[in-house]
Each structure stands twice: as structure tokens, then as C-alpha cells.
């Protein structure tokens, strides 16, 4: 277990390793993300608070699957389960390296969510782990709106729960 300030750095590194593993080696993403999730919990100074956040990953995973069902997003791998683990890593980051967002005005949280969400998914498109039949302008608009709402909602929920 690391002290909280050291763990923030570890959390950033773990999340980046998770994201790039999913984007660059999707055939091994599930195993790598599972191992990184275990590492997170081995090092985390807030294991119980972190475990309470994991159901939020189901929200993001469900929304991603809705976008896939609508045909707006195509996952170019045999399995989508790595997406659930990536969502686990994201919501855990909200309790550590992204915790500073909880104190920001909701408009700023929404703007950060919009920018971060679009860039993350656009990066996945560029690496080829995902694709989309949408025009770039449509893609940016849809992802910006849903990530603004989603990240603001997650931030609001976390503030109400008093986690972090």
C-alpha cells in the first residue's frame, strides 16, 4: 500500500498503461487490464472506497454498448469485456488522480469530460481498436455531449457519496 500522494502518481501510470494496452494490444487487453486492476488494489490506500466505485464502471460499459448497438461505434476485437475493465480503471482514477475534478464547477467538469472523452475515443479510432461510421463532426459532437453529461454525473454522484 502506498501513501495517498505517491499513489496518485501510480494511479496515473496504471491508468495510462491500461489505456495504451487496450489501444495497442487489444488481443491481450483483458489480461493486462485485469492484472493492472489487481495492482491498483494492492497499492491503493483506499481499497474499500475504490471497491465502492466499481459499479459506476457498469454505467460507462452499458453506455458504450448502447453506442455499439446503435452502430455508432465498432469495437474491432472479438470481445468487448476489456472495455468493462477499462471503465473500472477510469472510475478508480476519479477517486485518485482525477479527484481534483470533484471541486470544480460543473460547467468545467463537463468541458473536461467533453474534451477528454472525445480525445480518448478518437485516439482509440486512430489506433484501430475501434472504428465508427460517423463523420468526424458527428462523432465529436456525440462523444462530447455524452462525455460532458457522463463526467458531470459521475462527479456529482461522487460528491454526494463523499468518496475520495
TrEMBL record:
- Which Pfam families does the UniProt record give? DUF2878
Establish whether keyword rRNA processing is in the entry: no
Asked if Membrane is a keyword of the record, the answer is yes
Q: Which residues cross the membrane?
A: 12-41, 53-75, 81-102, 109-128, 140-158
Give the UniProt keywords, A-Z.
Answer: Membrane, Transmembrane, Transmembrane helix
Q: Which InterPro entries match?
A: DUF2878
Q: What is this protein called?
A: DUF2878 domain-containing protein
| Organism encoding this protein | Pseudoalteromonas fenneropenaei
Q: What is the lineage of its organism?
A: Bacteria, Pseudomonadati, Pseudomonadota, Gammaproteobacteria, Alteromonadales
Amino acid at each position: 500500500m502506498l501513501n495517498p500522494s505517491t499513489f496518485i502518481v501510480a494511479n496515473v501510470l496504471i491508468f495510462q498503461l491500461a489505456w495504451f494496452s487496450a489501444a495497442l494490444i487489444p488481443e491481450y487487453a483483458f489480461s493486462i487490464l485485469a492484472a493492472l486492476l489487481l495492482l491498483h488494489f494492492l497499492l491503493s490506500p483506499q481499497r474499500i472506497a475504490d471497491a465502492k466505485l466499481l459499479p459506476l464502471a457498469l454505467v460507462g460499459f452499458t453506455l458504450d454498448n448502447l453506442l455499439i448497438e446503435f452502430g455508432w461505434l465498432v469495437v474491432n476485437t472479438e470481445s468487448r469485456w476489456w472495455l468493462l475493465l477499462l471503465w473500472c480503471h477510469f472510475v478508480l482514477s476519479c477517486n485518485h488522480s482525477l479527484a481534483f475534478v470533484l471541486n470544480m464547477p460543473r460547467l468545467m467538469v463537463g468541458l473536461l469530460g467533453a474534451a477528454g472523452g472525445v480525445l480518448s475515443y478518437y485516439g482509440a479510432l486512430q489506433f484501430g481498436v475501434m472504428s465508427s461510421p460517423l463523420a468526424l463532426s458527428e462523432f465529436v459532437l456525440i462523444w462530447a455531449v455524452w462525455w460532458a453529461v457522463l463526467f458531470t454525473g459521475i462527479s456529482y454522484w461522487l460528491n454526494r457519496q463523499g468518496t475520495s
